[in-house]
Amino acid sequence: MDALASPTVSSGMLLVEIHDGTGRCTHRSEHKNLITDVGLQGYYGQVLTAGKPALPTGIKLGTGSAAPSGTGAGAALGAYLAGTAKVLDAGFPTVAARVATYKVSYAQGAVVGGPITEAALVTDAAADATSDAAHTWARILVAGVPALGANDSLTLTWTHTHSAD
Hints:
165 residues, 9-stranded antiparallel beta sheet, 9 strands, disordered N terminus
């Protein structure tokens, strides 16, 4: 991530897409997210040789409603949705033109029910459990995402843009 060594402004966006069993997109929404203090330390700390947090490995989903914050309880999932820890898709993350992109794809029927109200970009995606603030690079509340059925698949694409403006 050397291309991100000296950003001054960081912002995030999460794209949520749901497809039915035929592949038709039934829901698409974009949501601005909060990059936590751990995430900012991760980006800005890429020039450090020690003391930087681990890189994100995936995304977890939840049903919490607490407002996101840079530190503390709001920097972690409020209510983890069991079975939704997902490692990043092959080839991710990517970095181009000061945009870091993270993507996970849940297969048809992998996430059933809902509503999903929160998501977190985490460094411990292999653990099927909630992530605390120390393992969370970004967290977001998502509104309007419908419950998923047995034939639905879910794709989450998270981007973090860094600019010198």
